[in-house]
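Deviations from the work plan: none for this task. Representative record:
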Amino acid sequence: MTFKRSLGWLILLTVLAAWIILAQGMAGKIGAASLEGLVRVFSWPAFGYLLLGNLIGFAVGMLPGLGGPVTMALMLGFAFQLKMDAVEAFSFLLGMMAVTATTGDITSILFGIPGEGSTASTIVEGHPMAKKGEAGRALGASLMSSLMGALIGAGAIAVAIPIVTPLVLALGTPEFFMLTVAGVTFVGALSGGSVIKGLAAGGLGFIFSLVGLDMQTATERYTFGTMYLWGGGETGGAGIGLVPATVGLFAIPEIIDLATKGGSIAQAHVGRLGGVFQGVKDALRHWWLVARCSAMGTYIGIIPGMGGPVSQWVAYAHAMQSSGKQDQVGTGVIEGVLGPGAANNSTLGGALIPTIAFGIPGNVTTAILLGAFLVLGLRPGTSMLTKDLDVTFSLVWVLVVSNVITVSVCFLFLNQLARLTRIKGTLLIPPLLLFIYLGSYTHTNSFGDIIVTLIFGALGWLMVVFDWSRPALLLGLVLGRLADNYLWISYSRYEFGFLARPGVLIILGVIVMSIAYPLIKNRGRGRSAEAAP
Amino acid sequence: MNRRSATLAAVIAALFFTLGTATWGAAEVSFKGKTVAILIPYSVGGAADIMARQMLPFIGKQIPGNPTTIIKNMPGGGGIVGENWVYNSAPADGTIIGQFSTSVTDTIFKPTKVKFELAKLQWLGGVRETTVTFVSKDLGITKGTELGGVKKKLFFGTTSIQSPRSMIPRLLLKILGKDHKLVTGYGSSGDMRAAIRRGELNMTNDSQSGYFAAVLPMVEEGAVVPIAQEGTVQDGKIIRDPRLPDLPTYYEIVLELKGESVRKDPNYRAMELLAYLGGVRRGWVYAARVPKNVFDTMAASFDRFLKDKAMSAHFKKAIGFDLVSLNAPAAQAIIDKVVEIQKRDPEALEILKAMAQKP
Amino acid sequence: MSFRGLSIAFTGGLFLMMVWALWEAFGWELQASLMAWLIGLPTAALLAAQLARELAGRPEKAVAPDEDGPGLLDASLVEREAEPLDPAEERRRTARIIAWILGFAAAIWLLGFQFGIGLAALLYLKCAGEKWLAVIGITVAVLAGVVLVFDCGMHIFFAEGKLFTWSGLSTSPLFNGFCYQVTSPFKG
């Protein structure tokens, strides 16, 4: 433990030293631009748009049917019509986007339905807390860690400016491929008692992700001849949509559970709603964990194609692993709320870095933002780090200010929100089913989405009953398509030589360790348990 | 006034009358109180969707009766689900306009899934864009004709083996006999730009809007060099796009290196076919069932929309260059030509189909 | 069948599905099948190992309520201690809610989103024995959510209910959404 911690500090200090050396020349300019950016965000009407964006983002995050990226595309037109200037438009659009992950966590915790695609992981530990009557504590912890994550993510943009080239270009496609495998392995290895079941669930997720028309070879993979399963989107996204699958896997079992148990979501009634303040204290007490998960979230945001849907699970796995409570998965472990809460918020900051610096959007959100950049006459690239540095910093400030405002407002209503878990279950079920079906239906606007939700609902319910890891399956589904593409790029570019790249070997080593570690630990424990009586 | 001039006057008058009725006559349909939807066969937030959303404020005011205009998304099957729906199931009253991007190539590469006939779609208009191929500075060349002399191995990146955009440069390399490796699987042009920066690729191409928005800064920085463009079809000929007058087309490069005889090469003819296939980058269509008078009204509205100065100013700001638009007859002419070449040159068509299967 | 039997059946089902997935991948060319093989073979092996363990009767660590603490399933068991539920009643309730979940989906399919979800909500609440005030209130709220936010606000493409298609009642503007004819503040 001490070794791990001192290694952590050593890495941190090395990075800091390297950064200071690189940033020397830019310090003065960064300071001035930062101040100018702050002034521009607080000027009128930009600040008004920021508040409006926050308000919309608040609702969009909480409502499971409305996703952040989709709403942002809709609001883009709104921004054009109002003829906003660059800072105004970003205050509005980014102000909206910045808070969706924060308020999405609230829905996940209270109802077990992901408010956003990137807040599904908060369900795993957060919703059991709500059931135990600790909704307040879970919400407090999640909001506080979200705020800390957002601040770290925003800070990362500022920190990244001098070192952006190595940061973004350090890893190539073969390493990205290995990272996808690593992500699924981490989450799979975490699966309660059985590593075998966890890894198998992850593998099944990978296979599910292959469903659809392979855009490389036009092969129909597992489509049963139906065009619905071809997949949608301009670039031919996966046949099984992320939202229908997530909602099915996580929300349907919760509905069944709620109706079967009767009563309300909160089964036990802790007098003071489980203590919001307790949750805040949890976040501050585990500040180092929150910081680590935020850093992970930021870096995963930088990697193209990945984003909140991935970073949340990696952070979850890390939080559970390092908490030493791997055997208590799904029982309401507070670390499992803090990790994803921080990571899904810091990811946006990370995703903005390559978008600003190179015009390379990491995910749908930043792709839409990039569109807005261009319409507003900003060209991403070096000019954003020199001439338009103040605009870049206004983005940083939008992230910071939006989250400070939203989290503060949330705290005011938190007790009322937590009280929702005491509403009678029968009254909640129709609106919850509406959100489940509408949320999945917005994926491709066809009834096939609802069928996918039902199939994954059945699968998710059976997985709960027989104790299989739903997170591993879902992460496999998220990462599978990317992994498929990364694998083929690596192979067609380097042939099998890609396996010998140093980066690939290092990640491979980490994967092997992450599988071996719980096995060795389990064995050790098994032995001591045998010896004990 | 003598008899001849009287006759002339009568003819001119008659001509005016006919023209008048053709343009503003009884055929005009009003969309007052209706809702006109542009159907995007892709998800919200994609390039096609965002373009349509920017267009929306300008189109509604050009349609008689000033209807409410909205966007409807119907993603699936890489666009085919929505395309099929517009052709077969959409209301025939003209309230659904399809915005098609890949319908032309879909009929070639996914013939079993396409449930529409290219020749029977009614084209309301479209926009035209060229594509630009660029290489990494590491190759040490400054123009396309030097491509054959490159010592380093070429790694050409694209999204998928079926990507029509990548086929022209692939054919160029094929005709030049230049060995190269096709690296496929990238999610977007952005991914490929990153791959060029880190040395994973040294050659790729991008749409014109992508080029102006994100590649041009890389050119100015010296990281990449543009070497060729697809060009534009005008009066049945392939010319350099007026917005990129200094960049030669693939055809010019091949002709310079291989001489006129290359025109007989089926690979070259396949290249030409591709230029026509890409002739309408994004087009707005009606199904065959929409009545003629409704089509005429909407085609005239799109004509006014495409000539709208405020609209073109907005798009120039957004994409960094002038929009080249095609009105209904121009778009229809290109599609007719595509249908005609497909019939006339099966050999070239077969080459393209084979390229969609094998690198 | 016992819980153990059902568990074995589920694992076996996953294993068979995996085998089928690999079988399907046989016909594909290398590029399409590479991932299926690379991930599918180890996954099939893991599933076979799990199946063998379960058949051999090795107890599942996570399910057994030992010192390891409760697993995923037990999150709900813990709180149930307060009011223990009769297993037969639990099974009945589970079957009932699954039927309702399917019923909501069927209603949407037959009647389209606006009518289907409204009717299903009304019936569900009434069958659950709620007061009329709550029934009407929540039904109206649900309907308003569909119409105002998703139809008017976002112009979601609502497919019409199959009943309308079959009966020939489908008049696109009405059944494509109440809001189809109304100007939206969010358009474009």
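Residues 28-524 of chain A form one domain.
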